[in-house]
Amino acid sequence: MESATSRRVPVLPDLLRFGLLASLFLLALVGWAVTDDRMQGMDAGPGTDLGTLGFYVTAWVVMMAAMMFPSIWPMVVMYQRVQRGRAEQGREAPLGATTLFVSGYLITWTAAGLVGYAVFETARSVSIDAFSWDRGGPYLAGGIIVAAAAYQLTPLKDVCLRKCRSPLMFILTSWQPGRLGALRMGIEHGAWCVGCCWALMAALFALGVMSVGWMVFIAGLIALEKLLPWRALANYSVAVLLLVLGLAVAITPERVPGLTLPDSPQAMGAMQGMDGDSMGGGAKKMYDESMPAKGMDSGGTKAKGP
Asked: Average pLDDT, stretch 32-50?
């Protein structure tokens, strides 16, 4: 049904389609460049301090543009096609509606990021010793990733993924006219996307949210499940990859390529070298407090006992 209906939606001229795709991918590229610059040297592995709320929010919005824009282009292109069809029929198709649609999408992901920040900071404030890295930390991080793998197979994930993979059906069933309607539709689409990808983002927190390498990995999984034509195969493949990764983090974290161990000299150097101005001193405070707890002296070597 969607295929037959899509043939009645005007095809965008090549120049307009290219411009739209180029804009999305250019914004994503800029997002990756800014993220790489801001996150350089900040990866301290699982449990990395998120810094002040202001730093986190700005970094999160740029991250979402970098990670998500390459995956939402089919939805954005279809929205623009429908808007063009309405314009050709003399119906309301306000200028800037597509921009507002994408803005609404980012608003939803910003709200989701704030929830993630609140959960992360609340968990950190509890300071449960059993979850420190030298105790149950690897099991906690690995368990979160395994839980993300399990979520891939749930009915809720399937419903949300279908919404994200069916641009025309979403637009036809959720259409709202005008600029405000475009913003609301973007917010709604963002909500379905959060429902689809929140567990993958939780896995990113478990791996190290300041790691550009792990951001690329999670963004790749998101693109895989949203863009490949074989939905079930893509979804199960992502689940298997997450399962293997989660077990590896829990059992042999030191053998996971690209994973920064929180008790390693590399992580300690990252925490010590973070700019107190950009992070609001939060990362430096975490570093200072972690030194005696981990039995490390200021040089990053293990302190000798009495």
From this structure: 84
pLDDT above 80 for 128: no
Task: Give 241's contacts (C-beta < 8 A, 6+ positions apart).
Answer: 149, 221
Q: What is the CA radius of gyration of the chain?
A: 22
Mean pLDDT of the 247-275 span? 79
Whose tokens are 């990859």? That residue is 241
70 touches 24 (CB < 8 A): yes
pTM of the predicted structure, to 2 decimals? 0.82
Instruction: Write 279-287 long-range contacts (CB < 8 A, 24+).
Output: 279/42, 279/49, 279/51, 279/52, 279/55, 280/51, 280/52, 280/54, 280/55, 282/49, 282/50, 282/51, 282/52, 283/42, 283/44, 283/48, 283/49, 283/51, 285/49, 286/49
